[in-house]
Each structure stands twice: as C-alpha cells, then as structure tokens.
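Lab notebook page, bench 4
Experiment: in silico fold of construct C2
Operator: M.H.
Input chain length: 190 residues
Purpose: comparison with the prior construct
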Amino acid sequence: MIKRIAVVVALALWATAPMARELDINLNDDAAEVGFYFPPTEQMTVEDADLGGSLYFNDDGDVALSGIMHVTGPPAEGFSPLQFGAGAKGYIIYADGPDRVVGAVALSGSARLSIPAQVPQAVVFRGHVAPNITAFGRAERVFEGSVRYKLDFTPRASAYVGYRYLRLRMSSGSNQTLDNNIHLGVRVQF
C-alpha cells in the first residue's frame, strides 16, 4: 500500500511542479515537508493565498499528502500589522500504525502579525481542524497547528523557524502524534 501511495504522490508532484510558482521546504531531524503552491490568478480578487499541496513524511514511516486553499485578507487601511485568513485543507495520511490510511477535510484559520523592520518579519499562526464528520477511515479527528517566525529577505525568498503539531484521534480511542517539533524552512517564488 505504501508503494502505491508513494507512486501517486510522485506522479502528482511531477505533474503539478511545472505549474507551481512557489516552493516551500521545511525540515527537522525527524521530519520533512515539501510544498508546491500556485499564485492567485488575475480573476481572483485576493492578494495573498496559499493554493497547492504538500507532502509530509517522518522517520517513523508516516506520510501525509495534503491540498490547501487558504486566503489571507488584506491589512486594514493605513498601517495594520494584523491580518486574518481562512480556508480548507484536505489530508490523505498513511500512519505507520494499526489504523493505516485515513483522510480528512479540515477548516483552517490563520493570524499574521507583521513586524516592520529593515528586513520584513512576521509571526504567523495557523490551525486546521477536521472533526469526526469530515474525517474518513478510522480517524475521528485531525488537528494541525503551527506557528512560524518568518523573515522576508527578498520579495521572492523567505526563511522561517516554526513549530508544527500534527495529531490524529482514532476511532479506537488512541491518539497518534505525527509531528511535535521545531523546524527550519525556506519559501522561494520563481
């Protein structure tokens, strides 16, 4: 089963990579995530959106393929350092445990606090919650929360240090934590 998932993920990333305009990679000693994102089109009336997907894997053998559509609103008139966003994130997760493959559709929300400086900075909080009604397989709930401290070195390249918490609650009553670590990452537009 894991070989089939790996083949599907590889084909999906290979097929969509030429259309992507942003690459996001974050790593720690135990896990990695690679994401491809597309810029908003001219027909969309938003300036800041994450449209795309990512592949997460860790050294315990867990693999998560996700797709996201998340829109962040513009700052208020004048200088307002706070921005909010909302969206949805879909998951297909192969958990290296007794319950194996699960899926979920999560609602997401975010808050971004911009810090004006010579090198633009921001603190970004983001959460994704899939309750029992939108969790599939033997998952009852999927929760992912993250916080990032981001530095924009150029308009097209940023680096960040972040923390991610990714947890599954299974119908058997057990909980499985896929990630609970600090990571380093870069995001590049091309």
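Observations: The mean pLDDT is 85. Residues 109 and 119 are 26 Å apart (CA to CA).
Next step: discuss at group meeting.
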